[in-house]
Write a structure and sequence with these properties.
Strand order of the largest sheet: 12-16-15-13-14
Radius of gyration: 27 Å
Number of strands: 16
Oligomer: single chain
């Protein structure tokens, strides 16, 4: 029941207390209400971890996310980047490219420590696997992944069984085919890349035992 009486171990008596750099340590707060109910709270104030700026790589593939480029610092961090060309992975402190090009990413923490990364995204060549194993290790190799596909949107994928029957097709394949109940065995694919190049070959689908 208000009014409340606040007694901070710092000597303060307000609803809030401000701590500055150099004030790290253990503190207490005592609160007493109108009915003389009393509450004691102990807490620690810590200094923010030193900020670390990782070194960006020379190039990244479109659709690939960078490693975590920032750690530590006084949170929250503020970012300035091309939101129409880069995807930000949030707390992971990494970015992925939507389009080819070099993009600056400016980062600053609450203490004014700042840095600018220059992320160069290129359209990488595609690579198609010859083994696909959904259900074997959940979370790994669960879908038919064409590496570098993100740089070639609107690419078509066709998959045929051993008898030449078309069992899957997609005019804008996005690495999302999970086998769709197909039996273990060998399959044939035709990949029509959006730049006009065509690839074909076989892959083996392996099911968990």
């Amino acid at each position: 029941q208000s009014p409340f009486i606040y007694s901070w171990s710092t000597g303060g008596s307000g609803v809030t207390e401000t701590f500055n750099s150099g004030d790290a340590g253990s503190y207490t707060l005592n609160v007493v209400d109108f009915c003389e109910h009393e509450l004691d709270v102990a807490f620690d104030v810590i200094e923010p971890a030193d900020i670390v700026w990782e070194v960006e790589e020379d190039q990244y593939c479109i659709g690939q996310f960078t490693e975590d480029l920032v750690s530590g610092g006084a949170m929250p961090l503020t970012y300035v980047y091309s939101e129409d060309s880069l995807d930000f992975a949030g707390d992971a402190q990494s970015w992925g490219g939507v389009y080819a090009g070099e993009y600056p990413v400016y980062v600053v923490d609450q203490c004014g420590q700042d840095h600018t990364f220059y992320l160069n995204f290129i359209q990488c060549d595609t690579w198609i696997p010859n083994v696909f194993s959904p259900d074997v290790s959940p979370g790994s190799n669960d879908t038919f992944q064409i590496h570098g596909l993100q740089g070639f949107p609107q690419s078509r994928l066709e998959i045929y069984n051993r008898w030449g029957n078309l069992i899957y097709e997609d005019d804008n394949y996005r690495n999302n085919w999970d086998g769709d109940g197909a039996a273990e065995g060998t399959y044939f694919y035709i990949f029509y890349r959006s730049d006009g190049k065509e690839y074909s070959g076989h892959f083996t689908l392996i099911r968990g035992k």
